[in-house]
Queue: 2 jobs
Job 1
Amino acid sequence: MKGAELVIQVLQQHGVDTIFGYPGGAIMPIYDALYQSNVKHYLCRHEQGGAFSAIGYARASGKVGVCMATSGPGATNIITSLADALLDSVPVVAITGQVSQAVMGSDAFQEVDVLGLSLAITKHSFMVRSVHELEATLHQAFAIAQSGRPGPVLIDIPKDVQLAEIDYRPSPFTKHSATAISTSLTNAAKARQLIAAAKKPMAYIGGGVHMAGAMAQLQQFLADNPMPSVTTLKGMGSVAKDNPHYLGMLGMHGTQAANFAVQQCDLLICLGARFDDRVTGNLQKFAPEAKVIHVDIDPAEINKVRFADAALLGDMQQILPAISSSTNCPNWLAHCAMLKQQHGWRYDHPGERIFAPLMLKQLSDRMPDNSVVCCDVGQHQMWVAQHMRFNNPRNHLSSGGLGTMGFGLPAAIGAKLARPQDTVIAVSGDGSFMMNVQELATIKRFRLPVKIVIIDNQRLGMVKQWQQLFFNERYSETDLSDNPDFVALASAFAIPGHSITRKDEVESALEAMFTWPGPYLLHVSIDEKDNVWPLVPPGAANEDMITEQKA
Amino acid sequence: MNHVLNITTNNTPAIVERLLQVTRYRGYELAGLELASHADASSLCITLTVRSDKPIQLLTNQLHKLYDIQQLELVSADLAMLRA
């Protein structure tokens, strides 16, 4: 058989039944092998969209996402998505075609040094030089993508390798469980002492907990050691909805209760998070009274930006029970409950116009259980994080580390294909939506019942907000008041839609959207003056939040 | 301060670029690089000298994650000079 057929066979051995991609010259042999194979290929309309769909598929399901692109521009178009997967630790295998080895290095048509480009944006990458390396390389790619801290792996396959004949008999293959994780519990006793001695303990929960499959261990830990908890953007949904001590997201647009409490705590238990600058604000002033327990699977995160008094590396499922101690901090719990009550969200917004936080709360209350919400990037993304509640991080897909506009719509496509039984909602902004708008064609082609909510303030809202606050209201290139008619745009892709501008239209519009059996676009106009509050200004400590301010 | 790292890697395409890319990105200045391949050409022995005020562990922790690294040993700058 040909190398190209081997690729498809090995993918199938890994349980891959869904691929996102776009064909082109240098990957034609693999597309030829896909033709009439059992693997379902979803044609995206831009490789970046395809790779984001693979990310959405992976994040919603916990499986490896697979995408394909041709050489040159096809490969460069997936770079942004792979960077997104690297920063959010998403297991993705990307396969790119490359020009034949005979012409590699000659600036051939659609040739670019993909291996070179991949270095900074993948966990690992391969260039396959011989058809005899192909099988082992593919197995390695899946193992690396899933092992330890997950991430994207790229395999660049020259066309001659795809076309080369090989006598291939699939070896009996046990699905690579990622390399065994070595877990060190050396510091568990120290961590237990710190927890037992703490008067104001705080759990700071990131995406690493659910990715380790340790959601149950986390609930048990929080039940056995009652303490307040906060989450990062990626950790949202990790803490059970009925946990009374959960304070919400912390950081730049976190809740006031979360930020005040973290600043006051005397022990910060960081679980699968990395002290990102959007979380810490001014690092020197972050949680200044706190000792730190840091649990992670990536040794490079320990002491990277914040010293850990006790570090535990390895499998979160084993570590959480091992550091369980006993807490006794009724005054602290009462204080945090008071903070939460004192700084609760207010939805009593004046006037007829739609208030996005309230609309998103209504959406959150109204959406079916286990719905997946895929965000884009900007103000709407922060409003989603603040005002929607999730019972699992796999139900809230948001581009965290890279903050990539254009993520939401293609990620929703991937999520819908991963979990066809669940409702999938893309919440986007008028700026972000246009960045991968071509994927409406993918929704049309495969009749994917994705619900799209565009929150439209005719601005690049988050940039506008910063211009207003920190750049003397000089609104450089953030006016989008010449946006297209989004409902008409959707209708060009046979997607029905509806536009609303008033608060009293929200409930019936949501009802109509959820009742409609197919894809649907709800266009929500809001006042461009509405901003995201609270906000920790750049360089400030997290307790120095700016709250609502007149524009 | 100078730090000397003795590194053994698989001899795969781009491994040297990977080492240098991580070194640059993490904020360490390249001060020396020597490399030789093993007799069977399957491995490379690399001596990397870097300069930075940051703790060297921040770099070695990142380099350890590179898939093709077999061994990484930190030698102090002074020791390396004595050996030379």
Job 2
Amino acid sequence: MKVSLGFTLLFTLSLVSAWTLGASQYKQVKPPKTLPEFSMEDQYGEKFGLDALKGHWSIIFVGFTTCPDVCPFTLANLEAVRADLSLRVRPDRLPRVIFLAVDPDRDRAVLGEYLEYFHPNYIGITGEKEQIDTLIKGLGSFYRLAKRGADDMNYDVVHAATVYITNPQAEVVAEMNPPFDPVATGEYLFNIIRGVKFND
Amino acid sequence: MTDLKRYLLAGVVIASLSACGSGTDEVAGAGYLTITDAWSPLAPSTVNVAAGYFVASNLSSDSVTIVEATSPAYSEVALHRSFIEDGLVHMGGVNQISVEAGDKVEFSPGGLHLMLKRPDRRYSVGDQFPVSLHFSNGENVTFNMQVKRREQAANEATGLEMDHSHHGH
């Protein structure tokens, strides 16, 4: 009994040190950050505001649909993280992936099919610039449409690499940065969801 | 940038491991650059941009500079690079890429990639399309890119990794 307790403790300590080592990629937000009210639409045209974040864990990723390299790769990686987590947490605690599409002129029409490609359960939200900016500011995130002129439709979108974790009270509780190694990221999220407090 | 490269491990691993020889991947060489693992992730059907990845090895004794990429399958092809700077994801065109003799350059997710715009038709998994790289010395190399799902490419990488350890390379 004593031996097994010792082992458990040792095992736990080694896990804690593993999290500490990977600290720069993961950051708990303390105290949790309250988000402002906002009004956007999801990919089905349904209203999506602050209330829609409540009652679920969510992973919010800022991006745009005409991004061929980093956005699809991140979304695919987040799906691997979710798949890993789905074996470890109850379905109602599995975080949803929310793609905050910050380029509505190009994103709005294609958002549904774009997300279906990654996972049918992914949620995509976009809306008026003012509403996008409200949520971006609340998250402490950033994006910029790098337009070179009014009629430039080939512009790039510079956006934060960080993804934000919100709890069922719609508060930001953690930030994660690439690399999103599926196992390490799943482990971190698992502990965040279980309410483990650790220094990072 | 370094972090991003690591995060894109899957892509990089596929690239570097299959350079050891996967057997199924087509190899194109024109005496200047040898191209392996040329693939393009299946793009969401509504989006008319895609990425292209490959490994270009310079087995010649001269430095080779890639100045342009073209494809009959896409009306616009550009040499591109994604990178993270101050926590922001940027993407931009690259004028040219030099590969020293004996060296190689990897086009892989999150780093160098071909930006492919406006396909001539919708491409599906299993399809392939030709791409040409043009060099500053006037030469070029043409090879086929395979359209794959990202997870398919990642699984192949895992398989190759096991193969890799067995042969003790």
